[in-house]
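Good morning,

Attaching, inline, the backbone tokens for the sequence recovery test we're adding to the shared suite. The designed sequence is right after.
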């Protein structure tokens, strides 16, 4: 017959038993002496890091440019603000508001709009999408390395 001891281990106790043959068994139990329910092991935690843009002037509230850049890239692919908004889970009104806010900040348009003809990016809009892709490509290996260390 084995012997039983108990140790404190951060909020619960471990009951250790030494089975015949010297094999050590450990069973968690609560401080009230009741056995703790068995929990299946959790999937490993995945950490991902991504560059985050914020744009602003002086003390103004900064624009979360990450959402803007996602919208511009999707408009570039679809040719439609409405379709881009749907794909990103944004309302049409919110997508337009984001574009208006960014255009006011830059002082120039980011989209060429035409009724019934769709939308295309201006040179500035294309440059922002290009810069975001370039920054992501350059930083992604470093960010993945850092995330793996967490």
């Amino acid at each position: 017959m084995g012997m039983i001891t108990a140790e404190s281990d951060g909020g619960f106790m471990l009951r250790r038993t030494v089975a015949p043959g010297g094999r050590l068994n450990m069973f968690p139990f609560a401080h009230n002496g009741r056995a703790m329910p068995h929990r299946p092991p959790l999937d490993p935690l995945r950490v991902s890091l991504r560059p985050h843009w914020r744009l602003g002037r002086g003390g103004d509230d900064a624009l979360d440019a990450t959402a803007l850049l996602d919208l511009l890239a999707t408009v570039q692919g679809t040719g439609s603000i409405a379709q881009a908004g749907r794909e990103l889970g944004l309302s049409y009104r919110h997508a337009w508001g984001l574009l208006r806010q960014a255009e006011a900040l830059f002082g120039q348009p980011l989209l060429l709009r035409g009724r019934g003809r769709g939308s295309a990016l201006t040179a500035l809009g294309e440059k922002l999408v290009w810069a975001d892709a370039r920054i992501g490509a350059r930083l992604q290996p470093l960010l993945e390395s850092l995330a793996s260390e967490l």
